[in-house]
Amino acid sequence: MELIGYFAAILIGISLGLIGGGGSILSVPVLVYLFGIEATLATTYSLFIVGITSLLGVYTYVKKDLVEFKTVLFFGIPSIISVFVTKAWITPSIPTIIFQTSFFTLSKNELLMLLFAVLMLFASISMIKQKKNEQQTNLQFDIASIIKIIIQGLFVGMITGLVGAGGGFIIIPVLVNLFHIPMKKAVGTSLLIIAINSLSGFFISFQEIAHWQLIFSVTSVSALGIFIGSYLSNFIDGKKLKKSFGWFVLIMGIYIILKETVL
Question: Model pTM greater than 0.70?
Fold first, then answer.
């Protein structure tokens, strides 16, 4: 199972390098189902793995001028604040057992995984849907756009704090569909936002870490994957990336729901 886990770790990096997200979508299930890490702890481990891997991947996109730094600023600061509030107060306040009957028990770990999966389903639909005459332009930074970015940043930060997701599966649809940023530029921008969010969340709760060797080894393998993904992105059309990413997120979301409820 660990061998499969390390193979999946390469896919974490490839996913981040190729589509600017999906790393946490893979890393949390990989840590939980293949390495046997408790879901609550896996969310913290995921933040480090995805954060470092994303940070390494940003370099190639910066060289190609495919990072929207103003968007990163307006997205990143609210996200960091939201991550801190969520990790420090909201997540610890969730009880270990949420709901229990003689037939069914819903634990904190199961709730977090199900929340993760439901968000994946919503994000996937927005990516799969193809809009007619979709325009992709550089974002205009007027007051209305900045307010929208800040609100989205607060939301993504909360998700990062709750389920250990860097937020790429939410950030990419927002940048492409709401702000009409070209897909490949959205990928580079997303990677930097993910790195900021994930590492901020990790440093808030790194005291929980008990498996440093595992984290470093998975991160090293993922780092190899992100360079492979960044290279492959040179040969794949942005619109195809968008739709493929959507189907990938949809399949993973359905699997997690089935795994936590009936499998």
Answer: yes
